[in-house]
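note to self — DONT lose this again. spent like an hour looking for the file last time. sequence + predicted structure for the chain T wanted, 263 res
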Amino acid sequence: MRVVITDTSAHVAQFAAGIIADEIAQRRAEGRAAVLGVATGSSPLGTYAELAALVESGELDTTGVSAFALDEYVGIALDHPESYHTVIDTTVTKPLALDPARVHVPDGLADDLAAACEAYDRAIVDAGGIDLQLLGIGANGHIGFNEPTSSLSSRTRIKTLDPRTREANARFFASADEVPVHCVTQGLGTILDSRRALLVAQGAGKADAVAHMIEGPLAAICPASALQLHRDAIVVLDRAAASKLELADYYEYIEANQPTQAG
């Protein structure tokens, strides 16, 4: 796992956007469009804003890029302002000039939710797999809506939200009672299938979860610790989010002394 510590949340956004832009450009150089995994929540908003600026300036071409969202609430209308269909459209699809037909969000209104979850995983495979999965992290260590005790090999499925997650998300709704109890989320196994994972975290409120994810044991109590198993995971933090890492100095030393390969 590569750990990058930056000075501010703005630097986190700039660094992460640069990684995603490079991924899109690299796949285009290979003759195909990238397939991205996209997250909701507050953590990736700065990254999306940086990417949108690159698109607007003409420095980034997102033509043909596909995107798959991590999760969606169950039972919430698609046009509800907090439906992730709406949130992804507002924060990702339109600002990044993506083709809406290429942007996919789990179906939380399906009559057969289990079948819809299986279909979502198949759609990812049919698209060629996710090249880069963008992630945030919850204060309890969740990624996507994989709450503590989630199976490390889980696939897209229905989950019951932790009361702390519902409480944290209540600020987006008129009242806490309006926050759905259930969701559909990509599983930890689904996330681990991505070719590259990029997690961003900002603020002291994420420091404990970040420390458990990076330096704690691989354990279902901290779902994000599953990224220790990922073949190519990058975690980008501001100093507040990195404040409880015991080896922070070492991570910065590694970044300053990246190995090179002679040509």
